Amino acid sequence: MASSFFQKYRNHTPLPQGPYVVGCTDIMVGKTKEGSFMRLYYPSKVTDLKSQVDKWTPWYLGDEYTRGLAAFIAPSIPSLFSMLFNWQMRGVLTPAVWEAAMADKKFPVVVFSHGLSANRSIYGTVCSELASHGFVVAAVEHRDSSACASFTLNDKGEKEFLLFRPLQPNEKEYDLRNQQIKVRVEESIRALNVLEKLEKGEITNELPSQFDLQQLKGRLDLSQPIMSGHSFGGGTTICTLAKDKRFKVGVALDPWMFPIKGEVETICKDVTQPLICISTEAFQADVNLKAMGKLNAETTTFVTIKGTVHQNQCDTPFLVGPIGRVFAGASSPLDPVTAMEINNRLMINFICKYLGEKTQTCNTYLTYLESQRDKTVYGLYGKGKSMLGWDAGYHAI
User: What is its EC number (predicted)?
Assistant: First the structure.
């Protein structure tokens, strides 16, 4: 599979493996930064994903997003990077049916927080996998200038873009990231507030849409909300769990602890919910592991996927060729399909365990994880290599 995965997925990210065909829509509540903006992945009524390929969700979000990503990944050659990225990504699809009707059942909810310089689209593989197993996933697009781009709407309904904010000369990294993570926590909490209002049928979408939000009325199980995220979003997950006890379970993918280095003991002490930290091998330097070690050992599960790099927990490896993966820090010893499958099944099994859902799928995934045990290490572990790509400032703790 490792040798053929890029050819197989070059025009779309991997197909979700759960029993539901995934639907997708964007929701904006409030036109300003004080509102909420998310991509919603959900179980749909569609029964045949491949027959709906003409309605799959475009992965590419526009030139503004590319320019913001270029400002972070390739600041010395932003124009060249933008041109190549646009050429490569314009036709890529996420295998989720755009604005499909929602399935007639009540589903648990997940709020997902993206990493530094990412956006609401780039974790489509993780989010659609969760949705295919019966979760409604609100992938927040943060508007604290940590996303590659985002936008608000003016009084005429026109987009006003918010681009990624690079670190300024002589500016302290910690001051900026600590300020941003506080905004991110509030945005994550607002996303749960929106889900609660969607459950009551009280939300109007500011974006043009054919998707009737009334479909969500009475179909969101808010008894045990899950908070999740990757990298900066993993740190956001930990902080959100500490602040808002409505969230009952946490999943932090490669949590980046640098933005809370001055508050790590207090914040980690306040995380009392079950939490799993799923780490990639190359990302976890000693200083990050030490900070993660402040989390409650009785309620926190630590696991590292061997042979992986930071980008294995997002869509990047499935979007670019071998040279592009090296350039973006997404080239890993473990093939990306296997890395993503292990990551997603760890997530799903942990969530099902604490939601009390013992499904046949979860039992099958547990068997799979046992078969891949040589590729995982339980407990705090990492080789501490310098990380490539996003969140490169983590070493500055």
Answer: 3.1.1.47
